[in-house]
Design a protein that fits this description.
- The structure is a homodimer of 332-residue chains.
- Chain A is globular.
- Chain A folds into two domains: 135 residues, PurM-like, N-terminal domain (60s Ribosomal Protein L30, Chain: A); 162 residues, Phosphoribosyl-aminoimidazole Synthetase, Chain A, domain 2 (Alpha-Beta Complex).
- With 332 residues, chain A is α+β, with helices and mostly antiparallel strands.
- In chain A, the strands form two sheets. Chain A has a six-stranded mixed beta sheet with strand order 7-9-6-10-8-11, with helices on both faces.
- Helices cover 35% and strands 22% of the residues of chain A.
- Chain A is built from eleven helices and eleven strands.
- Chains A, B: It is an enzyme of class 2 (transferase).
- Chains A, B: It holds the Pfam family AIRS.
- Chains A, B: Belongs to the thiamine-monophosphate kinase family.
Chain lengths: 332, 332
C-alpha cells in the first residue's frame, strides 16, 4: 500500500494493519509504489467492484463482514469467469483512521485472503469527508483465452445456478425492518441465516475450474437472477425459459413464500446472491454435474436457453408466466 | 465496465461514453464481468491511486482535467517503476449520472488512453451520496524481475529529478486565492501555467525504459520532493544531501522565490509534481543522461546519496542547511 496522501503517522498505522496481508513476494511488503504480478503465459483476469456506505452496505454493518464482502464480491466474479485468484489491490476511502474499525477490518480481510489464496498486493488509502468506500480490484489466472464469458450460450443449453437464490435480499429486508423482519419475528435462526447471506457472501471459487471446463457462458448473480440472466442472454444473443419452481431456495425462503410474505418475483429480482449462473451444453451436463459434486458446490438446473431476443421468461405452476415488474435492484 | 449496480438506462449511457475507450481486445467491449490481460512472461506492474473531490481536487475543477489527472497520476507511477502501460480499470463514484459531466470526462480520458497507450479494460460505476471519487488501477509490463524499486539507492549514487519542481503546489495556491495568487495578480500567463501543472500532470512515461535500464531506485514525486526522497532513502537504508540551488524550477517559481513570495522549503514540500525522482550510479550517469536526452525528458542532478539513516538534508547558499518544518503534504 503506497499510502500516499496520508501523514507518516497514519502510514505506519496502516502499514501495521495491512502489511501482514501482503504475503505475496510481488507486494514488496507494501514498501513500494506498485506491485509486480508474475504471469507465466497465463491471462490475468481483472475485475473491480466497489461498495459504498449507505448504498451497498449499512452504516452499522460490522467492519469484519464489510471486509469479507468487499473481497468476496470480487472473488465471486473470478469464480464465474473460471479464474484462480492471484491477488488484489484495495482502495479505502476513510473519514478518519479509527483503530477500532481498522483492526477487525484488516484481520477479517487477511483471513479471507488466506482462505481464498488471494493476497493483498497494494492499494491506496484516501481521506474523504463523505461515506466510507471500499474498492477492490482482484486478479486471477486462466490459461490463455480460457476466461469464461457472458456470451456463448446456445439454444438447448441448460441454465444452472449454484446454492440458493434470494436469501441475501431477504436478509437486507430483515436489517431494514421490512416485511420479512415481521414475518420472521419469532424465528431468530432464520433471520440470522438471511442476514449472514447478505453480509458475508460465499463465493463459489471451488467451482471455478469446473466452470472453465464445461460452461458455454457464466456470470455471478449479484443484481438479481432475472436481471443477470437477461444480461447473459443479451450478450449471447439468446433468450431463456426458466421453471420458477426449480429455483433452489433455502427452507426459510421457501417458508416465506408458502406463507405469502414474499413472492418468487421478488426473490428473482433481489440482489447480492453471489452465486454462479452458468449455461451448460446438454451433452456435457452429466460430467459437469459429477465434477460439481466433487467440488462440493450444489448446482441446480432451472431451465433452458431458447432462441430469440426477448427477456428471459419465468414460468410458475401449470406453465403460467410470472410477470416481473423489475428485473434487478438498482442503486441509482 | 460491468456497470453492475446501475439501472439498465444508466448502463447504456455509461457504455456509450466508455465503450469507445475499451480498445484492447481483452476488454471485451465492456460487455463482460472482467477483463483479460495478456502477459507473455512479463511481470504485470500494478498501481492504484484514487482522487476525491474536496481532498485531491476542487469541486469546480473541469471534468476533462480530472479525467487526465486521475489517469496520469497512475501513469506516473508506472513510468517511475520502469513499466510500459498496458491498460487500466476505473471505479467512478458519482452522485448523479450527468451527461454534461460524463461527456468531456470520457472524451479526455479516451484521448489520454490513446496518447499513453493505456486502454480502458473495465471498471465499476457506483452511486454515492458523498463526494465524487475517481479510483484507477493501472497496469504496466516489465521484463521479469525488472520493476524499479524505492530500495536500491547506494551511497555515492546521484539524485536526479525530471522537469521542474513545485509548480503544481503553487498552482493549487493560485486556485485557492493564496499568497501566490496575490503575487501573480498581474501575470495571467504565469498563473495559467501553474494551474495547468496542478490540474494536468505530465507523466514521464517517455523515460520509463531509461529508468529501468539505469536507475538503482526510483519513485514519482507526488507528495513533495522532500517527503518522497525521505521515503526512497528509508526504503534504501540511506540518506541524501541535496543542493537546494540545483533543484530545477520554472521561471515563474524562481521569480516568486526571488521576490520572497514563497521559499524553497515550501517548494520542496508541496505536492502533485508527478516528476520522477531517481537515483543513478555515478559511473552510469553519462549514458543515462544521453539516453534521457534522446527521450526528450529534461533531467537534473540535485545531490547525492550518503550513508546514514537521517532524513535527507537540503543545503542552500554557502552550505547552510535549510530547515524543513514539514516534509510533505498530508490530507488527513
Amino acid at each position: 500500500m503506497a499510502s500516499e496522501r496520508t501523514a507518516s503517522g497514519e502510514d505506519s498505522l496502516i502499514a501495521r494493519y495491512f502489511r501482514p496481508l501482503a504475503t505475496d513476494p510481488g507486494a514488496f511488503d507494501l514498501n513500494d509504489d506498485a506491485a509486480a504480478l508474475k504471469a507465466s503465459g497465463e491471462d490475468i483476469v481483472v475485475t473491480t467492484d466497489a461498495i459504498v456506505e449507505g448504498v451497498h452496505f449499512l452504516p452499522d454493518d460490522p467492519p469484519d463482514t464489510l471486509a469479507r464482502k468487499a473481497l468476496r464480491v470480487n472473488l465471486s466474479d473470478l469464480a464465474a469467469k473460471g479464474a484462480t485468484p492471484a491477488g488484489f489491490v484495495l482502495t479505502l476511502a476513510l473519514r478518519t483512521v479509527d483503530e477500532a474499525w481498522l483492526g477487525p477490518f484488516a484481520s477479517a480481510l487477511g483471513e479471507d485472503a488466506t482462505q481464498f489464496g488471494c493476497p493483498l498486493l497494494g492499494g491506496d488509502t484516501v481521506s474523504t469527508p463523505g461515506p466510507l468506500m471500499i474498492s477492490i480490484t482482484a486478479f486471477g489466472r486462466v490459461p490463455p483465452g480460457k476466461m469464461v464469458h457472458r456470451s456463448g450460450a446456445k439454444p438447448g443449453d441448460l441454465v444452472v445456478v449454484t446454492g440458493t437464490i434470494g436469501d441475501a435480499a431477504l436478509g437486507l429486508d430483515v436489517l431494514k425492518g421490512g416485511v420479512v423482519a415481521g414475518a420472521l419475528a419469532s424465528d431468530r435462526a432464520g433471520r440470522d441465516m438471511l442476514i449472514g447471506r447478505y453480509r458475508v457472501p460465499q463465493p463459489r471459487n471451488a467451482l471455478a475450474n469446473v466452470i472453465r471446463d464445461y460452461a458455454s457462458a457464466a456470470m455471478d448473480v449479484s443484481d438479481g437472477l432475472a436481471g443477470d440472466l437477461a444480461k447473459l442472454c443479451a450478450a449471447s444473443g439468446v433468450s431463456a425459459a426458466i421453471d420458477a419452481q426449480s429455483i433452489p431456495l433455502s427452507a426459510t425462503a421457501r417458508a416465506l413464500i408458502t406463507r405469502g410474505a414474499v413472492d418468487i418475483a421478488s426473490i428473482v429480482s433481489g440482489g447480492d446472491d453471489y452465486e454462479i449462473l452458468c449455461v451448460i451444453p446438454e451433452d456435457r451436463f452429466d460430467v459437469f454435474e459429477q465434477a460439481a459434486k466433487a467440488s462440493g458446490v450444489p448446482v441446480t438446473v432451472i431451465g433452458g436457453i431458447v432462441a430469440g431476443s426477448s427477456v428471459p421468461r419465468f414460468f410458475g405452476g401449470e406453465g403460467r408466466e410470472i410477470p416481473l415488474s423489475r428485473l434487478s435492484y438498482s442503486h441509482f
